[in-house]
UniProtKB/TrEMBL annotation:
PANTHER family: MEMBRANE-ASSOCIATED PROTEIN VIPP1, CHLOROPLASTIC (PTHR31088), PHAGE SHOCK PROTEIN A (PTHR31088:SF6). Keywords: Coiled coil. This is PspA/IM30 family protein. Residues 87-142 form a coiled coil. It comes from Oxynema aestuarii AP17. InterPro entries: PspA_VIPP1. Belongs to the PspA/Vipp/IM30 family. Residues 219-241 are annotated as: Disordered.
């Protein structure tokens, strides 16, 4: 069972690693900023090119308008000199240049509108990039915090279940068993010592009782100063002897 759990854990870890590599928030954000900056560079280049084209068209318009005006002045001069044919030719050329100038003027108006739109888009993209840069660090910090929390939760989950927890439970039971054995040994050792001291104390009590009994019998004697049995023994009573022998046998047997 433990081998299967470890295998499942390895598989899950590999899958998570692949997902993290494919969807790493930090890398995605960095790449997004880079892509936006690349788009901004291209947009700036487009704006610069459109402005350059507009400037060139304006110069062409100015030149065509100036030439048309010049041919109009020449037509006036030809009429003043009485040369109507020359004036007509001058007006014809003036009309051609004026038409070119009018076309260029319309083209300039269109280019101006395009340039203004490109500039608006460029400013909007610059604003978005600035906002993205300001939020990037915050998002990266949040992503790292989420990853750390996920790893901690996975560790807690793996420790709380399966063979790992069972091993801790077995060790806990083993420690409790060792503690119980130690307490039992200590208790048995204490009881043995207590019994020895109790025996000694009991012996002291018996000696005290024996001394008291001797003193009592001595005081009850006829004043000869001798305990029974120290002088010539009187004739023994058979009943007393039997009772004494029975008591001795019981004491020796115990």
């Amino acid at each position: 069972m433990g081998l299967i759990e470890r295998a499942i854990r390895v598989i899950r870890s590999n899958i998570s690693s692949l997902i993290d590599k494919a969807e790493d928030p930090e890398k995605v954000l960095e790449q997004t900023i880079m892509d936006m900056q690349e788009d901004l560079i291209q947009l700036r280049q487009g704006v610069a090119q459109a402005i350059a084209t507009q400037k060139r068209t304006e110069r062409q318009y100015s030149q065509s308008q100036s030439t048309a005006n010049e041919w109009y002045r020449r037509a006036e001069l030809a009429l003043q000199k009485g040369d109507e044919s020359l004036a007509r030719e001058a007006l014809t050329r003036r009309k051609s240049y004026q038409q070119t100038a009018d076309d260029l003027k319309a083209q300039i108006d269109q280019q101006t509108e395009i340039v203004n739109k490109l500039k608006q888009n460029m400013r909007a993209l610059e604003s978005k990039i600035a906002e993205a840069k300001s939020k990037k660090d915050l998002y990266i910090a949040r992503a790292r915090s989420a990853k750390a929390s996920e790893k901690i939760n996975e560790m807690l989950g793996s420790v709380g279940t399966g063979s790992s927890m069972a091993a801790f439970e077995r060790m806990e039971e083993k420690v409790m068993e060792l503690e119980a054995r130690s307490e039992a040994i200590a208790e048995l050792g204490t009881d043995d010592i207590d019994r020895q001291f109790a025996a000694l104390e009991a012996g002291d009590d018996v000696d005290t009782d024996l001394a008291d009994l001797k003193a009592k019998l001595l005081s009850e004697s006829s004043g000869g100063g001798q305990l029974p049995g120290s002088a010539a023994k009187p004739k023994a009573d058979p009943d007393v002897e039997r009772e004494f022998n029975r008591l001795r046998s019981e004491m020796e047997g115990s």
